[in-house]
Amino acid sequence: MTGEVDRNVRFYGCECFTTDNIFLEDYSLHVRFETEQQFSRDYRAILLKLGCDTDEKYKDVIYKISQEVDRRIHLDEASAERTAAIKRTYRPLHPHVYHLEESYLTPEFKTIVEYCRNIDASKDGLLKFLEEEAAPRVYRFPVFERNFCRELVEELDHFEQSPAPKGRPNTMNHSGILLNELGFDETFITPLREQYLLPLTSLLYPDCGGSCLDSHKAFVVKYDMNEDLDLSYHYDNAEVTLNVSIGKDFTEGNLYFGDMRQVPVSEAQITEAEHRITEGLLHRGQHMHGALPISHGQRWNLIIWMRASRSATSCAPCATASPHWWRDGASRRASPKKTHSLCPNV
Ligand SMILES: O=C(O)CCC(=O)C(=O)O
Ligand SMILES: [Fe+2]
């Protein structure tokens, strides 16, 4: 299995990265920006309805878009600089958590993976080991031992409190940590994906590139009563996503799923999945989802967006043109133009 994938594939990105799914926080709207003319044609009226009713406000929107495009263009460069600064200045609290060890994984997870590695393994056989959530093709299983979760959170907390530079996971989360910049990729996330997750996703999501996931973006999202409480309805820049609850102590904040089409949340059948510390929820990246607000404490989750760069039958819709998406239950039509439906939360 390991031999089939290229270890050096960069997290797979689409060409529309600098034009699509730009999140306008003030209007809770995702937009596409190719030219000012196109943007005005596609969004001026929508923005007006959402309260963008002066030239000043409109100019501010254009300014924020240019800042976001600029951020995306320089993303790699800025990330490389932060990574180098972290390496130079940051001293880990628990250096061992950066290296994946079998002992961090629960016996249940190891049994599941062992089953999947078996030549006769089948999806039906595998389903006997997994908890199926009410949402279609969303699976739950215990991933990490509780002690490991505690040490990981302690390490990340220590990093948060250090003066080292921090990049944020994506445009929708204000707080969280990019695990590649901290040095988790090669020694932790890549072996986890290749040796443990790939056997599972190959059986569960062969139609969504699950058998050739060869890159990832891993980060930790953090919700706090004084920071982000929830996460808007979206889909991931991924074929398959693993979302593991690692701490700390929280109430509510369930994940919720809609459907695979980009319809407004108000029109979708919504199903909730509870976050339980140590347990992971595996789902298709294109499955629309969001997170409900926490009502107490702090919630930390490890998210691994996994992508397949060469999947012919992938869900990655660079092949499937679909309308841009809607948000937050409001019937807001974003771009009517057909475009890629991936690259959402970036
Ligand atoms: O907060 C969560 O559990 C969901 C996070 C998520 O969906 C994402 O970061 O893409
Ligand atoms: Fe997500």
From TrEMBL:
Record has Metal-binding as a keyword: yes
Keywords tagged on the record: Dioxygenase, Iron, Metal-binding, Oxidoreductase, Vitamin C
Cofactor(s) named in the record: L-ascorbate
Any single Pfam family the record assigns to this protein: OGFOD2-like
Oxidoreductase among keywords: yes
PROSITE patterns to which the protein is assigned, alphabetical: FE2OG_OXY (PS51471)
A GO MF term: L-ascorbic acid binding
Xref: SMART domains: P4Hc
Fe2OG dioxygenase domain span: 214-308
InterPro entries the record matches: Oxoglu/Fe-dep_dioxygenase_dom (IPR005123), Pro_4_hyd_alph (IPR006620)
Name of the protein described by the UniProt record: Fe2OG dioxygenase domain-containing protein
